[in-house]
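Intended use. Records such as the ATP-grasp domain-containing protein entry shown here are meant for training and evaluating sequence-to-structure methods. They are not intended to support clinical decisions.
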Amino acid sequence: MADRLPHPGGRIGFVELLPPGAMPSPHSNGVAGLRAARRLGCETVVVTAHRHRLEPAVGELVDTWIGCDTTSADLVTDAVAGQRFDALISWVDPYAGIAQEVATRLGLDTANPDWPSGGWNDKAAVRARLDDHGLNNARWAVVNAHDPVTAMPVPAPAVVKPVDGFSSVDTVRATTPVELRGAVADHRRRSSYGDAVTPAGRLICEQELHGPLVSAEGMAVDGRLEIWGHTDRTLSRPPHYIETSVAFSTEPLHPDLDDYAAAVCKALGYRNGPFHFEAVLTDTGPVLVEINTRLVGAGIHRAIDLATGVSCAEQVLRGCLGLPFLDPHADGAVCLAHITAPFSGRVDTIDGVEAARQSAGVHDVVCRVAVGETVTATGSNTDRLCYVLASGRTRHQSRRTAQNAARKIDITVVRPPENHFA
């Protein structure tokens, strides 16, 4: 607590800190938020169903714990009744909309008064709103996980994903009705995303967009967008969409991207809060992939901090508290290069981490697995085992530096022995 200011600067509530089933990490955006709140002299409140998992890792950063089922806005509203907050937020996909709905019910200054019940966690509802407002959009259709699939509802190839999904879980490319049926069946077998977060049981089928996958990162403050910069991304080979590298810089990627992001936020009535806005730069301009009404995660917030010279988590809290923003000073580009699990099995060896960490331009290497641990290859972003964080003058240079360092790391995964008696 040594970095806490002597005079409290407000009371910030966080609804959960980690994705469902995830273990605490000092590098998560949730922990970055707690540390930023401490720097601002804020009292921190964590609303969670998982205090037992969080407290050993972040207890010194939390003033008050409120325990409740966080999968329902009604239950969170009941749990925080009578509490005073200057802001109530979440930077975790399944909970971000819930926190924003509760903030609206509490009448907080940082609320979104036009927010629908459940927020915009439904990707189909977002697509429908874009159509209603005449914004550039993909062709799309909804598939119920329990209905028979007899044909492709949009022209192939299509991207199939849960309407309430995150981290590319159960996201797959389908080129035929047979592949679509397989994707639907796989999702139908999923009973939970973890931590009692249950799937809605519907998938969105979108015609595949052609062009670079990019993002705009920033926040909305009373309807005005503060955009910190943009990322470009590389993906795994089909049929999955694992992000294998992400490079952030303040340099623009497309002349219409920021205006398009602003138009989408306006159409959704998203006036306050951070956003992670993904789009494909097509021949007709940017087209939305998805918008997450939260601070970007998976380590990308660290790239933003390094490339802008200020904490994006602190910028969000300053916006919530009505404080002046820190002045960024752009400094090149920063890339995360990921190492993914080749298949399910047990981690046998991890070598080369220190060699990668000592490489020129590398800021950090983060491994989320240890020798002996079991890893599961699912075709989603949860397959990522390790990342290298590196900088350069441009996105291309930072990516090359990060990927070259990542090649020095060897994570050996061995398959489990076959059970010949099964």
